[in-house]
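Please, structure for the following, as tokens.
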Amino acid sequence: MCSDNVCMPISPTADDQTALFRKSWTLYDAISEKNYMFHREIYAQVADLLCQRYQKGPYHLLDLGCGNARFLAPCLQAAPPASYDGVDLSLSALDEALTYLNGIPNTALHHQDMLQAVEDTDSAFDIIFTGFAVHHLDAAAKQQLFHACAQHLSPGGQFIMVDVVREEDQTREHCLEGYLNFMRTQWTEVLPEHLDEACAHVAAYDFPETLSNLTHMAKQAALTKTQLISRHAQHHILRFTA
């Protein structure tokens, strides 16, 4: 992968699951700014995890579905990686990320599908991070992602996932029903037409897994340890160790 703050456009595979945020990144950014998905609490804990790794020595980080990196960037500033690679399908988000990541050494941004990016890389990483991206994949693609991450983690490396997780007794439909109600009742400062668009996206393209399913996928990929770092309502921080 490249370095020196260069964004390398790579033609992505067509992926309707990310169409909303490719076309309108500012909507997701507004949602995160209002902390509707607990970004502040979650990324404070992510910062702690990165600081713990930083104290052990230099580390290389791959960020899948990096967006504009506005929340991860302060974490990286507190625990600077030896190199940072960010991958996203939104060109507008990647353009913004260049600003937020200014000062982080050996930074590379890639316009690419995140699964393809992991499978194609020749690099090994000490941490692979992903925030609110994996739930867009179906079960088969999630398992494929776990295998790819396991293959490209250094010994003892960590796959840190922030995402929506459904309860063990919930169907996808039941989970989404509750999440859509959460959006409609709590996301009070989102314009109605934008809220409708976001709800339609969630209903069509979100496939949250249970914790047991994710743990099984990790074991299938030979990731030896699964930890629930914390949860904020439906939003979980998980760490899988190679």
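The chain is about 45% helix and 20% strand. Residues 5 and 98 are 7 Å apart (CA to CA).
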